[in-house]
Amino acid sequence: MGLVYADIELINADDLALARKHIIGEEEIKSMHLNMLADSGAFMMAINENIQERLQLPFLEKRKAIMADGTIVEYDTVGPIMVKFKNRTATCNAFVLNWDAEPLLGAIPMEEMDVLIHPQRQELIVNPEHPDYAVLKMK
Q1: Mind listing the domains of the chain with CATH numbers?
Q2: DSSP H helices in the chain
Q3: How many Å apart are CA 51 and CA 29, to the nearest integer?
Q4: Tell me, what DSSP letter sits at residue 26?
Q5: What is the pTM of this model?
Q6: Within a 10 A sphere around the Cβ of 82, how many other Cβ atoms?
C-alpha cells in the first residue's frame, strides 16, 4: 500500500474556547489547512515547528516516542488541537517535529474521528458504516 494523504484542518482549540467565551473574535481563531500523511502506524499526531508556530500552540510537556528503527526520541508535545476531516472532528495533542518534517495524522485522532484508510482507493475516508457521525468504541 502506498502513502495516503488527506486534506486536514488544524485549529488552535484554546482559541476556540476563548471565542466561545467572547474573549477573542472568531476571526482571531488560528487555523490552517494542510495535506497530512494518514499514518495508522503512529499513535499520536505529529506536526512540525512551522505549524506549531503558525497556530501558536502552547507547550504541554516532553514525551518520548519509539521510532520505526527502535530508537527513542524525546519531543515537545503541544495542544490542544482540533482536527477536522470532512464531517468529523477530534481534539488531541501533537508531537512537534523538526521545522520542515512532514506532519502525520496518527491513529488516535483517526480513531476519534472514525475514519479509515481505504486500501484500494489509497485515501482517507469516513467510516462507511457510520457516514453521518463518528461512533467510538467504549470497550
Answers
A1: 5-126 (2.40.70.10)
A2: 13-20, 49-55, 107-113
A3: 14
A4: G
A5: 0.93
A6: 20
